[in-house]
Amino acid sequence: HTREPSDLTGGREPPAWRTVGERMTTRAMFHRRLDEEIELRSLDQPDAEILFELTDRNREHLRAWLPWVDGTRTIHDTLAFIRTALEQEREGDGFQAGIWYRGDLAGVVGYHRIDWPRRRVALGYWLGKEFESRGIMTRACHVLVAHALGELGLERVEIRAATDNLRSRAIPLRLGFEEEGVVRRAEWLYDHFVDHVVYAMPR
pTM of the prediction? Predict the structure, then answer.
């Protein structure tokens, strides 16, 4: 089943914009409880230790598709990432949310910095291997897509994934995104280039 954009926004109209490309500032940290099992909330500095532990024990799993893993060597690297994410959220440019499953940190989902002049944003996400195949990421991404097209009033949400990363590519397809094409040699991944498939959901 392909979802129409209105399905994701719940039929809500986007907020009024005084000028094209106006930035929506963030007044509070993002927090959503999806159901009894899953909660999304903006990463904060006290989460650094548990986030680093999740990253460290999934290092080989994550390294297959994520270019930042080797650069995350200690908890201080994770803390620096969280501080950058907090600055991003304070500036109204999106956020990085921890995905909590039954009380455990399972992964991260968030917006790359919002392109306010063009009213669009791209999603990024990853999940610990032990939490895969439970529908967690599809539900988490659904919430962020709805938030972007609804509350934030953006016109386009984009997801890019390496052509061979079938798990990541399955997420936008389940959510009704359209496949727009392939960007050749889009990312350098340690010792080789990978192509990216581009998926988009217009409002």
Answer: 0.86
